[in-house]
Amino acid sequence: MLWRHRRGLFAIGVVLTAVVGGVAAVVLNIPLPPSDPLFQTSFVCSAAVTEECGPDNAMAAFSAQEDRINVPFEELPAPLIEAVLAAEDRGFYRHSGVDLAGIGRALYQDIRNAGVTQGGSTITQQYVKNVYLTSERSIVRKVREAALAVKIERELSKDEILERYLNTVYFGRGAYGVGAAARAYYGKDVRDVGVLEASFLAGLIRSPTSADPLTEPEEATRRRGTVLKAMTEEGYITANAGAVIAATPIATGVVAPRDRTGLGPVVGAEVGSLYFVEAVRRQVADQYGEETLYGGGLRIYTTIDLDMQAAAWDAVVSTLDEPGDPAAALVALDDQGSVKAMVGGRDFATSQVNLALGAKGGGSGRGAGSSFKPFVLAEAIREGISLKATYRAPGQMTFPKANAGQDWRVRNYGKTEQGTLNLIDATRVSSNTVFAQVMLQVGSVDVVKMANSLGVSATLPEVPSIVLGTGEVSPLDMAAGYSTFANRGIRNEPSMIARIEQVDEDGLIVIDQASPSGRRVLTEEEADLVTYCLRGVVEGGTGQSAAFGKPAAGKTGTTQDNKDAWFVGYTPKLTAAVWLGFPDAGPDGEVPTMNNIHGLAGVTGGSLPAEIWRKFMERVTEGIDTGTFRSPETFPGEVDGDDAEGTVTSLEPSPSSSSTSVQELPTSSTSTSTSTTTTTSTTTPVPTTSTTTVMQPNSPTPRGNRE
Fold first, then answer.
1. Which residue ranges make up each domain of the chain?
2. How far apart are CA 110 and CA 60, in angstroms?
3. What pLDDT shows up at residue 652?
């Protein structure tokens, strides 16, 4: 029989010999990975860096080196070795680098479990992938991985391979290797690790970021149970011992993750840059993972201007220089949406909450007060309401059933009677009663859409009282929204990172590049009309304290009982938002009011916030041409129900409001407050003028409402 098929058998033998020879040639010619792989530090640079970002010009560095502690094999505790072997490679001491039987078992389990995958790679193969190859899923990569694994098994002992593996594998929390992992999760030396800790750590290896015991306790418990079962099956522990540990709460002995920004000195820390660096760190970690951030050799080019940062910091601390002063936050954006300065707090060591980012910075948003009115103004202009449209501005008005079926009472500061105002003057003096009427005309749904389209990312309540700033926003939100006005209707998304590069085998490659979104959300004419009104606020209205001798526009804002005070403003090329307030509630659960601060009865947007804004702008625009605003040539839209246009003459107050006070008008932070904005069912509404129709929220209107 053999002789009869000798030619076919000979051909098969030749093919097999060629295959074996080819594999042997690959194995012999592929070099071994370095015996002690070094993780590459990631560097963060400011906007001033134009050459390659590196250790000599970086403002911060993120490195895994401080979180890797190499441990000799003889010092590794037996429970840890046993847990890893049981979880990752039960046949490690029996195979020669590639476990064909293990691959078969994994394939069988994958088919049997209908999609529940099980790895077939040996510890040797995992080590090869971690230190020499990439995570690319391809046949070529698997062949190289297997070939290298076989060669490593010929060159190194099993104990040496296991030692290298356990000192390089990533465990999450920025910890590379079991030495760093034991400290990151349990705050102890790896030599003191027992079965309880070892079973959890071994379960982290496959996907460390999704099984942290403090944030993902269910998944962490499940993985620990799987490892304990495997250890029992292999005879490393008894079933009773495994059951006792399985019944122990997963967070037992686990410490909180340490502050990752403490990896080294940060340039500009003395002027508050730590808040910006931490915001960048979170963004990159969320986008690329901690493993890449701390060991991927990233070059992160940010948008921060350290000179502007120093100016922002000095403006805040020179103004709020007395004990018991409130906190402040400031964000500045250029005309491309780049964050040039960010003051998120006064002491990063005391509080890492970034007040400039609101909820995204670990805190919460705050009421915007009257600084929200420009968004209502923009929607009114879009719907065809002229800035020359006039409204009665009594000290108090009541709108029947306008507040979720209840009457809505709105009043000016001190119930000041302001006569009859057009929208230009109503913006200048921040008339609550006028803007309440406008709000009901355009509808809360459309106003929220407008604010979001302009750049406010916060989720806002669709209620009439939002015109008085009842929605919770952040300084970054407000700066983004106002910058769209400065850009004449073009919205650019705020960005802290200009470019990210990564070191690979061929050098640096760009993996992320920011570019202005440049999306038009208002016409140039609409944006110019809003700016015209906001110029009046600075030149002769509630924001006069912000004037600094160059073209500027802005709006003040103050919430109920002076708990929040804002000034948000811009030049043609730079926008900045300033917020003041106490971040935390007092013993009574209420946020403290800003009364009797610096001799002021109450802090308003036109006082300290406007002063901080002015100081910042004076310094950063010194010797710089800030550009000019374009004044509108006409005021299109409906006046008294007819289309009308008027010629721009000046920003002087109209005769009807020439005697109106320009004192900042605090507005309510809730729609049911008792001082500025309240609900009642008994007060008779003050009639509006013939040119203004009081309408129910979200009801059809004759002015192009989109609802």
1. 32-246, 358-499+517-680
2. 45
3. 36
Task: Confirm whether 32-246 and 358-499+517-680 share one CATH topology.
Answer: no
β-bridge pairing 390-392 and 638-639? unpaired
150, 158 in Cβ contact below 8 A?
Answer: no
Please, are residues 160 and 73 in contact by the beta-carbon 8 Å criterion?
A: yes
Please state, for a pLDDT cut of 90, what percent of the chain lies above it. 56
| pLDDT 10s digits, 69-91 | 678 899 999 999 999 999 998 88
- Whether the Cβ atoms of residue 530 and residue 377 lie closer than 8 Å to each other: yes
Count of CB atoms within 10 A of residue 207's CB?
11
Residue 541, token pair as written in the block: 């209205």
Contact 77, 198 (CB under 8 A): yes
- What is residue 669's predicted lDDT score, i.e. its pLDDT? 37
**Sign of the alpha-carbon dihedral angle for 695, 699, 703, 707:** positive
DSSP string for 195-208: HHHHHHHHHHTT-G
Length of the chain: 707
Fold of 32-246: Penicillin binding protein transpeptidase fold (1.10.3810)
- Under 8 Å CB-to-CB from 158, ≥6 apart: which residues? 92, 93
pTM above 0.70, yes or no: no
* Closest by CA position to 622, among listed 313, 307, 318: 307
CB atoms closer than 10 angstroms to residue 257:
15
Report the CATH number of the 358-499+517-680 domain.
Answer: 3.40.710.10
